[in-house]
């Protein structure tokens, strides 16, 4: 579960990582008072669980309290990549001398954590890594040994970070371990002209499997900015909004992730994805299709199911029954494989819905879904 920036900075503070003074509100009038308490000037930042806030106009400097109120009024309610801004954080501006990037992320393939750090923070780290890979240090961390001062010094040296950041690197590791996180990131970590090290922005993703140990976040941590994500969550569906045009429904996280890659490889972008899990009852399919089709960005839908414990004929029955409950307005491409796949395809052939097409391979179905999305 992802945390908002203001929640991440709360964890940073609790673990001794310095951050600028800041307060959160959902009221423009209160934003004016917060700016006054911060000394007049304030950085007004949209609180949404997505990147690109600055480019979208969700991060702005207000020169005085009245401007802070006006700016908060303009940002609240904004749509940023499908996320509606419900709160803004007002932070005290700082005089920046240098910006750095630091993060720890779980590297499942290596069975270790990966420290990523760069002296070129404050911008899109993916672009930096692609254009100047030598400027981004990647060092694995043994989860048993953790990040000691010596290890933090190794990371800082490799990335070209000043020695002052070593203590932050150690404390950031403590955030990761003690808060059951799988990602902690600070971008930018800055050095002010007064020589102080501050975390200006942060991202924390907690491990859902350890949620029972992090009960303090309660319902707040699962709040959804996107109404479709909220609707899906209310129906017990695992749905994530993206920014493309092909709706994706699959069964199992691994298959769904592969489906996203294949769709992208076929020249289209996934608009969202929904994992129906190990079962695909008519109700689950109807709910899933309802959510996917409610996204106006969706031009076609790709249902990719590999039958294992759940047989494909049961999935096909679910799709047929869902078509009775949901008005299909966009083309639906279905790929069924695995347990009882032939029987499942026959069921869909028998239904003969004019907007439903079938393909026998994942690549073929992805190509067709991408083609339909790009030509509609």
Describe the protein in words.
The chain has 376 residues and is α+β, with helices and mostly antiparallel strands. It is 36% helix and 27% strand. The strands form four sheets. Strands 7, 8, 9, 10, 11 and 12 form a six-stranded antiparallel β-sheet that branches. A six-stranded mixed β-sheet has the order 13-15-14-16-17-18, with helices on both faces. Strand 16, helix 10 and strand 17 form a beta-alpha-beta unit. Helix 2 runs antiparallel to helix 3. The longest helix has 14 residues. The two termini are 35 Å apart. The relative contact order is 0.10.
Helix content: 25-40%
Mean pLDDT: 90
Uncertain spans: none
By DSSP, the count of extended strands is: 18
The biggest beta sheet reads: 6 strands, antiparallel
Strand content: 25-35%
| Cα-to-Cα separation, first versus last residue | 35 Å
| Count of DSSP-assigned helices | 12
Short note summarizing the structure:
The protein has 376 residues and is of the alpha+beta class. The protein has helices at 5-14, 28-37, 65-75, 125-131, 149-159, 166-178, 227-234, 253-265, 282-293, 312-325, 341-351, 362-375; strands at 22-25, 42-46, 59-62, 79-80, 83-84, 88-91, 96-107, 112-118, 136-141, 181-192, 197-199, 202-206, 238-241, 246-250, 270-275, 300-307, 332-338, 356-359.
């Amino acid at each position: 579960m992802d945390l908002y920036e203001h929640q991440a900075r709360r964890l940073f503070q609790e673990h001794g990582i310095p951050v600028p003074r800041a307060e959160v509100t959902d009221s423009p009038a209160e934003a004016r008072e917060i700016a006054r308490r911060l000394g007049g000037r304030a950085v007004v930042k949209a609180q949404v669980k997505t990147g690109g806030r600055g480019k979208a106009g969700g991060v702005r400097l207000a020169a005085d309290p009245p401007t802070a109120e006006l700016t908060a009024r303009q940002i609240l309610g904004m749509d940023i990549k499908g996320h509606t801004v419900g709160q803004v954080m007002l932070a005290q501006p700082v005089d920046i001398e240098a910006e750095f990037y630091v993060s720890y992320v779980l590297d499942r393939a290596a069975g270790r954590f990966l420290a990523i750090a760069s002296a070129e923070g404050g911008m899109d780290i993916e672009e930096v890594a692609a254009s100047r890979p030598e400027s981004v240090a990647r060092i694995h961390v043994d989860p048993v040994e953790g990040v000691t001062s010596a290890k933090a010094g190794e990371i800082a040296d490799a990335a070209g970070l000043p020695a002052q950041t070593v203590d932050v690197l150690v404390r950031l590791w403590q955030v990761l371990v003690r808060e059951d996180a799988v990602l902690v990131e600070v971008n930018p970590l800055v050095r002010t002209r007064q020589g102080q090290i501050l975390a200006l922005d942060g991202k924390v993703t907690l491990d859902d499997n350890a949620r029972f140990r992090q009960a303090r976040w309660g319902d707040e941590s699962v709040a959804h900015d996107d109404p479709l994500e909220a609707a899906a969550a209310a129906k017990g569906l695992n749905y994530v909004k993206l920014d493309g045009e092909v709706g994706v429904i699959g069964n199992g996280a691994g298959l769904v992730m592969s489906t996203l890659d294949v769709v992208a490889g076929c020249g289209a972008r996934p608009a969202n994805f929904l994992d129906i899990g190990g079962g695909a009852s008519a109700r689950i399919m109807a709910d899933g299709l309802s959510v996917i089709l409610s996204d106006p960005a969706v031009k076609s839908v790709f249902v990719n199911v590999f039958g294992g414990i759940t047989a494909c004929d049961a999935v096909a029955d679910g799709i047929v029954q869902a078509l009775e409950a949901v008005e299909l307005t966009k083309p639906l491409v279905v790929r069924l494989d695995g347990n009882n796949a032939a029987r499942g395809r026959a069921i869909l052939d028998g239904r003969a819905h004019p907007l439903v097409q079938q393909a026998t391979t994942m690549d073929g179905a992805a190509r067709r879904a991408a083609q339909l999305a790009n030509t509609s």
